[in-house]
Specification:
The structure is a single chain. The chain is an alpha+beta fold. The protein is built from 14 helices and 16 strands. The strands form 5 sheets. Strands 3-2-1-10-5 form a 5-stranded mixed β-sheet, with helices on both faces. It has a 5-stranded mixed β-sheet with strand order 4-9-8-7-6, with helices on one face. Strands 11-12 form a two-stranded antiparallel ribbon. Helix 1 packs across helix 7 (262-285) and helix 6 (210-226) packs across helix 7 (262-285). The chain is globular, with a radius of gyration of 47 Å. The N and C termini lie far apart (140 Å).
């Protein structure tokens, strides 16, 4: 019955597809005056808006989310059972990037079609109020996608959820509550990466999720034409919209023979002709250009000032349009390559850190490096030993500073002394030393101390302060008085 009613209005709705109402962008709610958040009644201004659009307080609603624009829309059925935009909210925070959620912990917010039932309303959420999206739905389960507790909630903080402010959330919660009281069995949530216009689809044509988005676009277009939430089924692990099947739909099995109601098919044929013209025009506009999809951190950076003076949990993320940009294909390729290299470097550092922590048992035990199995030569530095000083050197005169720093040579034989004589000596002195070297070697003197002193006289040793030892004066023989 519902599908027949949808088809009956499709042709008329196609003519009115461009008609929308101005949205209210803010939630003028003073939470300090709210005594019971689950029984909050919509403002008189909101009630007047619904009356103006021919809506009853308890008529059905539908929710639409657009990540890139950062927008959550509430659509409500009028008396002719056609949905119109009632209010639009700016999403305070959503995590990850454009694209569906695939696994637990990927920080992605879901994309797709999700039925919201009364039992998914959570009045006791620690994030003020919450509505569970029901992720994973039938499509997600058929494709092996995993994740839990994906919500639309308050508190403006997200890890895979769509987070609103508390003032926004109390209004959204109240509208869903009233619709359930009016008999609506489930509220359809349509979560899209962006408004699926011809220009946006052309701009994102190179995104790896484009095939998934083209599948969602069928349901998006049918809502745009009929202004009625589409009937959803899943077969062959794909969404199918407003299809009449010859048998039951099996999410993982082959699709049954399907047919589209003639009126809907005609309305969609007209819509698609106009879409193709717009898409071709957009492709010319974006020829050679590609869209850079910003990261969550880049989105947060442009709204950082909004967090000033608020609690740490308040974390708006901004939208992708403001943070993203069009680039030449070659420039984007270089940018993505640089990002990939940086991510790989960061991952390598994290792996090394984990391995070190594992090897050191959490940092409490540092392993001792094993000995090198290859023998290494031991290199010893030559250490010059100071020359032994004779007793007579204690009474030698002081030497200049540059000579005092030089080490004293060890007494050597005459040939060695001749080899180290300075080259600037007078010629006579050099000749005399040469004759001395050629002369027969004399016998060692009887007094070895005197011989050592004479040998040291050739090159005076460095002055060195002797240790003060008081000795009684000795008497010298009288012949020493006139001696050398």
């Amino acid at each position: 019955m519902r599908l027949r009613n949808l088809v009956a209005t499709a042709a008329v709705a196609a003519l009115l597809a461009g008609c929308t109402n101005d949205a209210l962008d803010t939630a003028a709610v003073d939470l300090s005056t709210v005594k019971n958040k689950t029984e909050y009644q919509l403002s008189s201004k909101m009630s007047a808006k619904m009356s103006e659009l021919g809506m009853q307080k308890t008529s059905p609603i539908a929710l639409r989310i657009f990540k890139e624009e950062g927008t959550l829309e509430v659509w409500k059925a009028n008396t002719s059972n056609r949905f119109q935009l009632l209010k639009s909210y700016k999403i305070c925070a959503w995590s990850g990037k454009l694209g569906p959620k695939v696994k637990e912990g990927d920080r992605q917010a879901p994309e797709g079609f999700y039925p919201l039932f009364p039992h998914q309303m959570n009045p006791n959420s620690k994030y003020y109020l919450a509505i569970n999206t029901g992720y994973p739905n039938t499509y997600d389960k058929a494709n092996g996608h995993q994740g839990t507790h994906l919500m639309i909630h308050g508190a403006c903080s997200s890890s895979g959820c769509y987070s609103m402010t508390d003032e926004q959330m109390i209004e959204i919660f109240a509208m869903a509550r009233d619709a359930f009281k009016g008999g609506q069995q489930s509220v359809q949530l349509q979560a899209f990466p962006f408004r699926m216009t011809a220009e946006n689809m052309a701009r994102h044509r190179n995104n790896p999720n484009i095939d998934f988005w083209n599948m969602l676009k069928v349901g998006y277009d049918q809502f745009e034409v009929t202004k009625r939430p589409p009937e959803i089924n899943v077969c062959e692990k794909k969404y199918v919209f407003n299809q009449q099947g010859s048998a039951a739909f099996n999410p993982g099995g082959k699709c049954p023979a399907m047919s589209t109601p003639p009126a809907l098919q005609m309305a969609m044929s007209t819509f698609e002709k106009g879409y193709k013209l717009d898409y071709d025009k957009a492709m010319k506009k974006y020829d050679g250009m590609v869209w850079y999809e910003p990261s969550e951190a880049e989105r947060k950076a442009i709204v950082a000032k909004q967090r000033t003076g608020r609690e740490l949990a308040y974390a708006p993320t901004g939208n992708s349009i403001d943070a993203g940009k069009l680039m030449k294909a070659s420039d984007l390729e270089k940018k993505l390559a640089a990002q990939k290299e940086a991510e790989e470097t960061k991952l390598a550092v994290e792996i090394q850190k984990k391995e070190l922590e594992k090897a050191t048992q959490g940092g409490t035990h540092v392993p001792v490096p094993a000995a090198n199995p290859i023998p290494q030569p031991v290199l010893q530095a030559a250490v010059e030993q100071p020359a032994a000083k004779s007793f007579w050197s204690l009474f030698s005169r002081s030497e200049p500073a540059d000579q005092a720093q030089a080490p004293a040579p060890v007494a050597a034989d005459p040939e060695q002394q001749a080899a180290v004589q300075p080259q600037t000596q007078p010629a006579g002195t050099a000749a005399k030393q040469t004759r001395s070297a050629e002369a027969p070697q004399k016998a060692q003197p009887e007094n070895t101390a005197t011989a050592a002193a004479n040998a040291e006289g050739a090159v005076e040793p460095a002055a060195e302060a002797p240790v003060a030892v008081e000795q009684p004066p000795k008497k010298r023989p009288f012949w020493k008085i006139w001696g050398n």
